[in-house]
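Pipeline run #58 for the internal structure catalog. This entry was flagged by the ingest filter as a single-chain record with no existing model, so it goes straight to prediction. Upstream metadata was stripped on purpose; only the residue string is passed forward. Reviewer on rotation: M.T. Logging verbosity set to normal.
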Amino acid sequence: MRPAPRRRTGTTMTDVSYEGTLKELSTDQGVLRYHEAGDGPPLLLLHGSGPGVTGWRNYRGVLADFARHFRCLVLEFPGFGVSDPGDGHPMVMAQGAVGTFLDGLGLGAVDMIGNSMGGIVATKVAIDEPHRVRRLVTIGGMGKNVFAPGPGEGIKLLMEFTDNPTREGLVRWLHSMVYDPAVVTEQLIEERWALATEPKTLEIARRMYSSQAFAAGAAAAAASNATPYWAQLHKIKAPTLLTWGRDDRVSPVDMAMLPMRDIPNSELHTFPKCGHWTMIEARDAWLSAVLAFLLRDERRT
């Protein structure tokens, strides 16, 4: 078994293991749990949705690399089995948790990285509370289908699993997340299965991804006069890097076209032979692109 990664700071070593980085923040909405590693400008990392997801599982493979440059804060959203569950819709709770978390730590504007749902949450924060976002990096997820039909294959499989949680359904969904099926290991399946079928976590997932909830949400959006977030992307003031797996079957890459054009200061980087988990499947190339973007201003000074 590989030892936990450690980050060198001068002559000392900083623990970047699960236990060594896990912290808690008590709030009026319950306990928010998070992982913290590194020193420097604050970098908030927001996870996606789906069976058995956590912030740690999304970013454990890149945390040590970011911790060499930033004070990394991996927030666990309410309702996904790590932070306290909450009573609301997971997306709404997630956006509220960002402001609560940053205020609780006394932080102003931070850099944000958001994977899938986390990217949508960070995008909404950048629109509604621009003072909180210094620079924005998204990993798939956000935007709107232009050519590909929606919902994508991965979302349909996610709904199927949420309606009828079987191990076979989980495996089908996991394979839709990646280009290379070898990424879906037995260890990954087992750790995802254990959390995805925990009763409270599954109940909260059904608020968002059951076929009934998905249909109700689509109907409510169609009947509402509210402007969807993807029609407000022009309001984002933060420099933005959109990262996308070219072979994403959850949020097809054509979804990037609208944010690429509408966000005033945005860039798009796509990764070949890569599905929805760009930070995992194209790890080294993705890290290179993201670090170049986030460190660009510092290198000029």
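catalog note: The two ends are 41 Å apart (CA to CA).
catalog note: Strands lie at 6-9, 12-15, 22-27, 30-37, 42-46, 71-75, 110-115, 133-139, 240-245, 266-271.
status: ready for reviewer M.T.
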